[in-house]
């Protein structure tokens, strides 16, 4: 698989989003672990998670613990796997989402994630979502403190606008390595953030790149050009979508969510799919 860079680390050009394995409709643990192992077998070296990827209030960090278990039980070498997690977004257990961007909370959340992942330092720790009750500089300042303390190797942010990207990079002393925003054929409003990341040489990690858990399978029927290119190439529309994103800029690393070995294995093939300029123009016009 082609590689891309996060900080000084080379990772596979397609990552794995762990969210579908821990929230509503999640599979049994055996299938989830098989999915993570299939991703590793296919060359995936970036796995994205968050402490908020869980169902019930008493299982915070379910996805983090699941990924740690899968890595520990994998028969091959996992030393090059970068696990990225997030803090600052919470699920009380009733299906809703809440925010807590206070520095004290973020530092406590990071400590808890460290224990669940079973590591001395988290590979990539990301501020999950801005909290309007807390000044953004205070939240990002906590991430800077964690970086300075050696509890995290790299720092990222998620769900940020261009101003927040520049602000975070300044607060972190130029050490911001990634931005994770929603981006897909159906959601293109993060294009300015993608372009800014390319300008600043910061990794851009599109979340829900295939349109979300419930819509990924419908991508071809919703956006005809993706289905047409896929048919001509004898690949899936999902592969075409991810290859289209990779062509946007060398900093783009899609992280499609998956809960089945078959889907992540298919997605990874997009890393080696080169689309023509004419195909990319058609796909840009879709939606």
UniProtKB/TrEMBL annotation:
Keywords: Oxidoreductase
One of the record's GO molecular function terms: oxidoreductase activity
Keyword Oxidoreductase appears in the UniProt entry: yes
A cellular component term, taken from the record's GO annotations: cytoplasm
Gene3D superfamilies linked to this entry: NADP-dependent oxidoreductase domain
InterPro entries referenced in this protein's UniProt entry, alphabetically: Aldo-Keto_reductase (IPR050791), NAD(P)_OxRdtase_dom_sf (IPR036812), NADP_OxRdtase_dom (IPR023210)
Ranges where the NADP-dependent oxidoreductase domain occurs: 14-286
PANTHER family on file: AFLATOXIN B1 ALDEHYDE REDUCTASE, ALDO-KETO REDUCTASE YAKC [NADP(+)]
Protein name stated in the entry: Oxidoreductase
Organism: Microbispora bryophytorum
